[in-house]
Structure formats: C-alpha cells, structure tokens
Amino acid sequence: MFKRTGFIFNADDCINCKACEISCKNENQTPMNIQWRTVKKVAPELYLSLSCNHCDSPECFRVCPERAFIKRKDGIVQIDENLCTGCQLCVSACPYQAPQFNPETRKVSKCQMCYPRQDIGMVPACVEACTTGALNLVDLNTFEDEQTVRNLPGFSDVTVTNPSIIFYPLKPRKRYFLQ
Amino acid sequence: MNNHFAIPEFVQELSTASSHGVNQIVQKLSTLLSHPVLVVDPLYQVLSCSTGIEAIDEIVIMPDNQQESNPHFAVFSCQISTIDSLKNGLANPITLNNKILGYLILFSNDKPLAAGLYEDALIYTASLCALQMQKSLELKQERQKFKEAFLFDLLYGNIKQKEDITEYGEIWGWDFSIPHIVIVFSYKEDNHFFTNKQTVNMLLQVVENELISQNFKPIAMAKQSQVITMIPLVDTDYDENRAKLEAFAVTVLNKAAKMNPEFELACGIGKKYRNPTELFRSYQEAKVAFELGILLKITTPLFTDFGLERILYKHDLQDLIEYYNHTLGSLLEHDKNHDGNLIETLEVLAANQFDMGKTAKASFLHRNTLRYRVKRIEEILNMKLDDLHVRLDIMAAFKIKQLRKI
C-alpha cells in the first residue's frame, strides 16, 4: 500500500505568526496576488493555516476538462500548468479555495506540497517554518491518534472530498487572573 | 557407486516434474502411486487434482481432527465426500517456515490406504509442493504490487494514452476496449482512521469471488476503507446494465454484512465510460454517489440517478442556508411560534410529488384535514403550491435539508 501524505494541524499551537505563509511564498516564488497558503482567523482564538488539502477525492481533479491534475501515489495533487486553459472550473469546484487563478498568466496554480523537497527527504517549507510546530506532515494510512478530528469550525465540509488534513482541536484554556 | 547415496527413481521423477508447477507434481505422484491425488488450500478448497478440475467441484474434505492436531503424525487420514460417494484418504500438510500453505491428499476409490506405506512419498512431495506454492505466492505478491500501481494510475487518470491502458490491461487479461464502470464499496466509518486491514481484505475477497462467479476477470483493489472495482459493460441496454449492477452490489453488500455484521457497509456506482482514460471520472462519481447514498439512504446509489443533488452537495453552504430560509423560513417560524408541524406535512407532500391522495395515506390524515393544512401552508408561505416553480423551490429546499446542509 502506498503512503498518503497529509497535514496535521494543531489549532491550539497556531499563533498567527504567518511564517508558513511567508516560507511558502519564498520557496515557490509565487506572484504577489497568489498565496498558496494562508492563515485565517475564524474565531477570537482560533487560527487556521490552510492550503490545498490534497484530497482523496479532489473535486478540482474531477471537474477539469483538460485533465491537467495528477494525483501522485503519495497522495499529492499536482496541476500541470501547461495543460491549464484557465477555465477556472477547479477554482469554483474546490471547497477550500486552493486553486488560484493568475490573471497575468491566465493559468491556475496551487500548493504542490513542496514535492521537490519531499522527493529528497525534506518536509514542505511551511512545515519547516512553523515556529510553534502547529503544522506537521504525517502518513494518514498509518497515523493514529484518537484526539484528532477531521473538521474544525471555519473549515469547509469534508464529506465527498475527503481532504488529507486532520486537526487537533482547541482545548479549553484555564485563565489565571492576578487578584 | 555407493548405494547409500543412490536417489530413488521416483524422487528424480518428482523433482523433474516439480519444475513445471503443482499440477505436474500432482499428476506425477498420481501416476507413481496409482491413486488420485489432490492439493487443497488451508481452508480445504481444491487447488489441483489429478483427475481434472471438473471432477472435483463438489468435494468436501473432512479431516480427522484428533490426528490433524497431533504433531507426531505428519500424515493424517481424512474423508473426501462428493455428491455421490465418500472416500478415504491420507493428507499431509504442505508447510513452509511453520506456515501451512495447504494439504496434499492421496485418496483411494475403494479400500482405505495404509499410512506407513505412503508417508515418505507424501512428505517429500509436500515439500516440493511447498516450494512451488511459495514461488507462485511471491510472484502473485509482486504482480499485485504492479497491479495496484496500475489501478491507482488508472483511477486517478495519470495514464493519458488509451493505448497504454489497453496494453497494460492485457497483462492481467482485462479488456479496456469495452466500456467499464467503477463501483466503490466502503465501510461507513465514524472513525477516520480505519485501520482494520483484515476486514477490507475480506471485502476485497468477497468482491473478487463475486466477479469470478459472474465470469469476469476481477479488476479490484483495496484502498484504505474502500474496495474499488471496475466492471465491463458490454450491453448497451441501460436498464439491463442497471439491474445487473444493482444485483451485484446487493449481493456483495449482503455477503460482506454476513461476514462482518459489526461494520456498516455502503456502495456507490459511477457512470459508464467507453474511453479508459476517462475512468477516473467514474471513480470520483462513484465516491460522490457513495456519500450521497448514505445521506439520502439509498442502498445502491447510481451517480446517474442524482439530479439536483449533484449541484447542491458542493454548493456554498451560506448560499444554501439563505435559500432554504428564504423558501421555507416563514413556515418554520410559524411552526416554532404555534408549536405546529406544517413543515412535516409539506415535506411528506413534496416527497409524494404533491399528490394529495398519496400524502393523506402516507401521513395518516383525512383528505380534508390535509386540504386545510395545505391551504394554511399556502397562506403562510404566500405562494400557490400548484405552481411548478414553487414546487421546484420547495423540493430543492428539502433536498438541501436531506443533504444535511442545514
């Protein structure tokens, strides 16, 4: 059986430093208006660092008329920009807004989980840059932890697409005030 | 030459025959001992028989348990029952590295066989069979690795040329020049770590056996909690194909449920594609049908059967909630304030295609009561229920609710 690489995100540890965003931009040299990874604030103390989730049933892949998407055996969903005609069907089909249209090149691009780095045994740039270790990479075929959940508030519906990301939910925090 | 180093002639003959596989070993041993010989797997399913495969369809082998469990007796006696007769035989386990790969059985058509006479020959032949069976098992595992890689590429559209797929398919005897359809069987997992590989492998075996019984070369693979299979559809008759697929899916679901009643199983059926490079679409559609089938409680959901649901399941949630509230909000509000259940009446009415007679029967209401309720609903919603546009809106709103979007 092949491995299924996926992200594991600990919502408790994310402090919205955006190091993952910056490292992604730096590694992939994406244009100014394109951000493959973004950190968004979904609740007062909940930040989500999201990119393409390399779904098991990618909708982008299903709707593409040019068959520009490829799913590698390790689970990474890639787009061949040479085949992309810029129809943007994938952009509207993806529930996670992962594929992004570049009006200058009239092509769609998306996170490719830093596969050149992974192929030589390194972790993706975003994972390496994460200052608190909130973002990590696991093999979802073998990983087991009952504390993890498939969805968090602010994250799109996971039925049908089955994204390759799991979360550690927020734990109730104790507050200590000085009297 | 020293007689102590002499190798008996029958050993030489068996060794020579062994290079051609288990079938040849069985044939040679049968010729040498002048008795029929069988090789069965650990579950006593016949793998090879010296009298020909046709003659062994109905054989049931009943080992003498006491002897089988005794490690001092490598050879144990057993009974072989066919439809019309009961025969006595001697069985020897075929083992390699303490793992039982099957049994070698010598049986007689008339009197019982003497264990002491045949024991050495059976033990030696069993060791030859073990080597051959291990070799074919390793080959099968190697082939399985390539098969899975090919099926993965096929299901994710990574092979772009039709000719490549057809050529690869021929290796395993699959004809991709005819249209295929993808069916996904999967366990309804509450836990997203479905690591019970044994259960999935059992399901894979059920699917493969069912395909073989329908004279198909099984194209199937296990992937996480799923078992994916591709079925060739030669007939052009849609209804006939549909009936066949549904019957196949129901049979597999029933058999698997009997084997593992603690796990709930569901399936999804994609669309038929003539071009094998398009089969990845059928796979994705089968997975969508699987999810929608669970939500809408359909046992054998076909992707082609879904209409509005296909658009609704992936539409923006906020939009859907707004649409639902816009269409049925006033009725929900009324029910909440007056502790009523007009929304349920409307739901049953929509489910029965707005037929008053059927709805009255289904909701155990008198026709006149139903008429009064429909009138109230029309007043509250401020729309006429005999308008087709209104009906479409209401149906869509209830479909959104069914898809658990609300």
From TrEMBL, chain A:
All residue ranges annotated as the 4Fe-4S ferredoxin-type domain in the record: 5-34, 75-104
Xref: Gene3D superfamilies: 3.30.70.20
Keywords of the record: 4Fe-4S, Iron, Iron-sulfur, Metal-binding
The keyword Metal-binding appears for this protein: yes
Keyword Iron-sulfur tagged: yes
InterPro entries: 4Fe4S_Fe-S-bd, 4Fe4S_Fe_S_CS, ET_IronSulfur_Cluster-Binding
Protein name listed in UniProt: Anaerobic dimethyl sulfoxide reductase chain B
Source organism per UniProt: Neobacillus rhizosphaerae
Gene name for this UniProt entry: dmsB_4
UniProtKB/TrEMBL annotation, chain B:
Residue ranges constituting the PucR C-terminal helix-turn-helix domain according to the UniProt record: 342-400
Recorded superkingdom: Bacteria
Transmembrane segments: none
Gene3D superfamilies: PucR C-terminal helix-turn-helix domain
All residue ranges annotated as the CdaR GGDEF-like domain in the record: 161-291
Family to which the UniProt record says this protein belongs: Belongs to the CdaR family.
Protein name stated in the entry: Purine catabolism regulatory protein
The species this protein was found in: Neobacillus rhizosphaerae
